[in-house]
């Protein structure tokens, strides 16, 4: 099977690949029953992202040309099953492979088939479905929906959770509902809605209420960032900031640098814009900024997306010297930095001499020329339901993002803005964060103690100075998806490393959100994970030692 891709063509590569395979199937070069390479094998052979192969295969499945069988592979379907694959002049509705031989469902046929059908001979009702693979835009097709499905699957417990124990959820990237300050939110909500300023709920400017922007600017100055109202825009969550920045700056083919493992919704945004995403290697201190000069010289990025403080998923914090190096590289190569600081408020303090002695100053506090666009949110410190964040950037950027935002949501919810305004007044949120970080530090310590006690040889983990996440490295040969499947059956969930990996190939790590489970469940959850890892490793023939 010979396939060719034109990397200079304006036609997306998944469509080129689908066309090449379609031609060979229709011509008979690939006979019915032929087993196609796996997505991973073909991606390696063609030197493309696995998502490209998945999209091409999905299009051919929608057209009824191929079908996958669990545990066996992907095969070319018989001609009778692939009637609509001859690429007619007008798009024909696809024949989903899972309905080809299933007569318990209404038969799916083309309009042409409908005209020919003898109603007396074939009384089954006809369902004509839209040709989704043709109708969906390239923008939406560039999303890797399998990543979303895998993340959602990881957050659901398995059948083993029905043994009387609740699910121990290390997967979900949000706080424990019990930590949401209900009394505080109730009080500030009543005050906000009773305020004379709230009467009639005046419409917010696109950038947000000036008073809230001013309070956010004051708050940022306490973090070492010099800014004023002109530099601040209120967002409907910090993810909206990523989306707006992508719309404002990224053209198809532009290069974006990210940490090799990173926040996967950000990867989705960059992929949707058809950006070229390059993962920069990491170590225990975050992005390897010593490699950036060489990478920039070769790839000439337009944006560098980074989570330098309490990184998601690894928990790493970038030291001051690396932060300076990153900013220097951005200046030299005239590229912009997106600083995602969702967890920056959650510094645990200087209790451990091996961790930072001071709360890290954001990148935005280390330069004033406009190269850094800073994003943060209330969702990690108050409640994910608040959906309110902010961006601090050059006024030129704020003006452009505000103009683009008119097409999205006009402005952040007036009610949410009023609540955040009351939270920021008189230091209420600062007092709440102090309470929160003390509790989170205790949970981190409980998790790391349990790992020290139960982890088998070859298992390593990070000890974060703040934020939510402990990043676990598995023993050689142990796959995170195998561990997840076994743990879900026992009522414990976590997020596998491949979800965050730029190349989707990391199967040696897992992410634990140590603040999500109840404190009483932490040790048991970690023990289940460690025992599962040991069982899988021992099944591979590794040493059967576990710490106790």
From TrEMBL:
Report the superkingdom from the record. Answer: Bacteria
Question: What positions does the domain HTH gntR-type occupy?
Answer: 11-79
Mind telling me which CDD domains this protein's record contains?
AAT_like, WHTH_GntR
| Pfam families for this protein | Aminotran_1_2 (PF00155), GntR (PF00392)
Q: Name any cofactors this protein relies on.
A: pyridoxal 5'-phosphate
Q: Which UniProt keywords apply?
A: Aminotransferase, DNA-binding, Pyridoxal phosphate, Transcription, Transcription regulation, Transferase
Q: Which family does it belong to?
A: Belongs to the class-I pyridoxal-phosphate-dependent aminotransferase family. In the C-terminal section; belongs to the class-I pyridoxal-phosphate-dependent aminotransferase family.
Protein name per Swiss-Prot or TrEMBL? Aminotransferase class I/II-fold pyridoxal phosphate-dependent enzyme
Source organism per entry reads: Bifidobacterium ramosum
């Amino acid at each position: 099977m010979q396939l060719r891709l034109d990397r200079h063509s304006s036609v997306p590569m998944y469509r080129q690949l689908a066309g090449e395979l379609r031609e060979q199937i229709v011509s008979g070069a690939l006979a019915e029953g032929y087993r196609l390479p796996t997505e991973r094998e073909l991606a390696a052979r063609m030197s493309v992202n696995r998502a490209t192969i998945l999209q091409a295969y999905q299009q051919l499945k929608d057209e009824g040309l191929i079908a996958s069988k669990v545990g066996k592979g992907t095969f070319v379907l018989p001609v009778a099953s692939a009637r609509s694959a001859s690429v007619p002049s007008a798009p024909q509705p696809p024949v989903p492979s899972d309905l080809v031989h299933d007569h318990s469902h209404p038969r799916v046929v083309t309009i042409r088939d409908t005209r020919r059908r003898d109603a007396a001979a074939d009384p089954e009702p006809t369902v004509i479905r839209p040709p989704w693979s043709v109708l969906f835009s390239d923008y939406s097709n560039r999303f890797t929906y399998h990543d979303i499905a895998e993340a959602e699957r990881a957050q659901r417990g398995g059948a083993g959770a029905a043994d009387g124990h609740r699910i121990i959820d290390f997967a979900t990237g949000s706080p424990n509902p019990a930590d949401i300050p209900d009394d505080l939110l109730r009080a500030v909500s009543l005050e906000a809605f009773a305020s004379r300023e709230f009467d009639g709920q005046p419409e917010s400017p696109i950038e947000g209420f000036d008073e809230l922007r001013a309070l956010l600017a004051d708050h940022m100055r306490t973090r070492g960032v010099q800014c004023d109202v002109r530099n601040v825009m209120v967002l409907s969550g910090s993810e909206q900031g990523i989306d707006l920045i992508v719309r404002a700056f990224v053209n198809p083919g532009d290069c974006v640098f990210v940490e090799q493992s990173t926040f996967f919704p950000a990867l989705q945004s960059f992929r949707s814009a058809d950006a070229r995403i390059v993962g920069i290697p990491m170590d225990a201190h975050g992005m390897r900024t010593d490699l950036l000069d060489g990478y920039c010289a070769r790839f000439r990025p337009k944006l560098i997306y980074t989570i330098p403080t309490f990184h998601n998923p690894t928990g790493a914090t970038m030291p001051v010297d690396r932060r300076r190096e990153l900013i220097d590289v951005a200046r030299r190569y005239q590229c912009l930095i997106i600083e995602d600081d969702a967890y920056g408020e959650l510094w645990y303090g200087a209790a451990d001499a091996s961790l930072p002695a001071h709360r890290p100053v954001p990148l935005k506090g280390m330069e004033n020329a406009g190269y850094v666009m800073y994003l943060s949110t209330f969702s990690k410190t108050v409640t994910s339901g608040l959906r309110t964040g902010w961006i601090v950037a050059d006024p030129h950027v704020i003006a452009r993002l505000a103009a683009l935002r008119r097409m999205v949501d006009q402005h952040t919810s007036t009610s949410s803005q009023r609540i955040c305004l009351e939270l920021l007044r008189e230091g209420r949120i600062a007092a709440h964060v102090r309470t929160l970080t003390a509790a989170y530090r205790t949970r981190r310590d409980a998790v790391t103690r349990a790992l020290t006690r139960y982890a088998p040889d070859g298992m390593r983990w990070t000890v974060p100075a703040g934020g939510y996440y402990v990043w676990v490295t598995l023993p050689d040969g142990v796959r995170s998806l195998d561990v997840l499947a076994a743990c879900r059956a026992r009522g414990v969930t976590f997020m596998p490393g491949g979800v965050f990996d730029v190349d989707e190939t990391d199967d040696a790590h897992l992410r634990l959100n140590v603040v999500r489970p109840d404190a009483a469940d932490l040790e048991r959850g970690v023990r289940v994970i460690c025992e599962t890892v040991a069982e899988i490793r021992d099944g591979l023939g590794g040493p059967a030692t576990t710490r106790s």
